[in-house]
Amino acid sequence: MPGQESGVPEDAMTQHADQSPPATFRIRTATASDLDAIMAIERASFGASAWEAETMRAEIGSEWGRYIVAEEIATDGFAGERTAAESAVAEGADAADSHRALGYAGLRSVGVEGDVQTIAVVEEARGRGIGRALLAELLIEAERRGVRELFLEVRADNPVARALYESVGFGEIGVRPRYYQPEDVDAVVMKKEMLR
């Protein structure tokens, strides 16, 4: 879809020295109830190129694809003893944050062709392998759907995402000049032949 990148933002795979240990996360199929969380990540990740909420809603509900969400599974990390009051406060805080969306991704497939529509991860969770895990799940889904050729577009100015895609077998097949608007950035078109 024009204006949308199927790549994690440029610094998405960078591990920061001051970053806390990776949170536990799980990947599940997105539903309409995830739209607000997905759109918050979408806007923060893609800015002016972000999809409209109605477009994303249609994508999430489409029979031609599958959207997935990586959500945090809270781990307490508390090593000491707590009073009953401290435990109640912690449990309330954990409940609010325990299934926070960390990223999402989408696949569209028709017949033997598929397209990685998008992948995005919240800034503070980048560098933890979430983008790679989302992509791996999309590859499994593409195989399940009988996709033989999988395509994507990625910003030419995003070497981190391009390297991620190359690492799982995508190769560059062309360029779409000025594809990402309003930024005027070229899209590198990539393709992966799915093994059968």
TrEMBL record:
It comes from Agrococcus baldri. Keywords: Acyltransferase, Cytoplasm, Transferase. Residues 1-22 are annotated as: Disordered. The keyword Acyltransferase applies. InterPro entries: AcTrfase_RimI/Ard1, Acyl_CoA_acyltransferase, GNAT_dom, YpeA/RimI_acetyltransf. Residues 25-195 form the N-acetyltransferase domain. This is Ribosomal-protein-alanine N-acetyltransferase. Belongs to the acetyltransferase family. RimI subfamily. PROSITE patterns: GNAT. It comes from the Bacteria. GO terms for molecular function: N-acetyltransferase activity.
